């Protein structure tokens, strides 16, 4: 497992779904994976809402998102990326450190939850939640899990985020993976109640079941964003 993650949730209108799929698949994520320290990425779509997406990047550490190559992508989007940014909504971005993880492989379905919790109690709550998830895995009810801890309200200049947290809180991201969506769906309420009792969060930021659309390794791509070959594809949409 990677030491850190960058978790991103966003909605995108179904009217532009075909273009979103092309852009995100052939330009956006491949560009990000040219950044040193970006190990891998995978993208999901919500099982309940086809306009809601979740993207998970695996990082060597949190300094990756301060690397000049990453900041160049943020500050200098391609014409296609600039166009696509106009339609994003309901954006939540959480870079966090992995506090606990277990399992092998990557499940095709993921139950992803995010909460702000009291800073002084979060680590103890995570230990209890870890034990609970390890039981789930031992019973073959999930294939693996990740628990991440993050500072709240981290600046992201591309999109406005309506994340209501304060300095006394930290953000917790819980990712439980499996191979059968129905099985994870039946665990959703139980896991949610366990999180509420162990972490005592202020409120819920996200709680959704996602199906994986595509997964990438970082070593599949060149070391420069300018070598990403989405040019012909982008011209179909941008001109």
What is the average of the pLDDT values? 92
Distance between the termini: 40 Å
Level of helix content? 25-40%
Radius of gyration (CA) equals 18 Å
**Structural shape:** globular
Strand order, sheet with most strands? 1-3-2-8-5-7-6-4
Q: Decide which structural class fits the backbone.
A: alpha+beta
> How many individual helices?
6
Q: How do you describe this structure in short?
A:
With 239 residues, the chain is an alpha+beta fold. The protein has 6 helices and 8 strands, in the order E-H-E-E-H-H-E-E-H-E-E-H-E-H.
Polypeptide structure, described:
The chain is 31% helix and 33% strand. With 239 residues, the chain is α+β, with helices and mostly antiparallel strands. Helix 4 packs antiparallel against helix 5. The N and C termini lie far apart (40 Å). The model has no long low-confidence stretch (mean pLDDT 92).
């Amino acid at each position: 497992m990677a030491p850190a993650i960058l978790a991103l949730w966003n909605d995108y209108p179904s009217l532009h779904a075909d273009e979103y799929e092309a852009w995100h698949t052939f330009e956006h994520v491949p560009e990000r994976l040219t950044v040193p320290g970006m190990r891998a990425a995978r993208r999901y779509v919500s099982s309940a809402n086809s306009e809601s997406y979740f993207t998970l990047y695996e990082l060597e550490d949190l300094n990756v998102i301060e690397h000049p190559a990453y900041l160049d992508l943020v500050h200098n989007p391609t014409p296609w990326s600039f166009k696509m940014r106009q339609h994003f909504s309901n954006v939540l971005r959480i870079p966090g450190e992995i506090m606990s993880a277990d399992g092998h492989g990557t499940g095709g379905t993921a139950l992803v939850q995010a909460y702000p919790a009291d800073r002084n109690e979060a680590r103890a709550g995570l230990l209890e939640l870890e034990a609970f998830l390890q039981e789930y895995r031992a019973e073959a009810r999930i294939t693996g899990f990740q628990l991440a801890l993050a500072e709240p309200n981290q600046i992201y200049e591309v999109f406005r985020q309506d994340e209501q947290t304060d300095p006394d809180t930290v953000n917790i991201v819980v990712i439980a993976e499996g191979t059968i969506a129905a099985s994870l769906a039946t665990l959703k309420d139980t896991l949610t109640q366990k999180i509420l009792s162990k972490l005592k969060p202020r409120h819920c930021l996200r709680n959704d079941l996602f199906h994986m659309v595509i997964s990438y390794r970082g070593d599949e791509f060149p070391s420069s964003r300018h070598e990403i070959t989405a040019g012909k594809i982008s011209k179909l949409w941008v001109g």
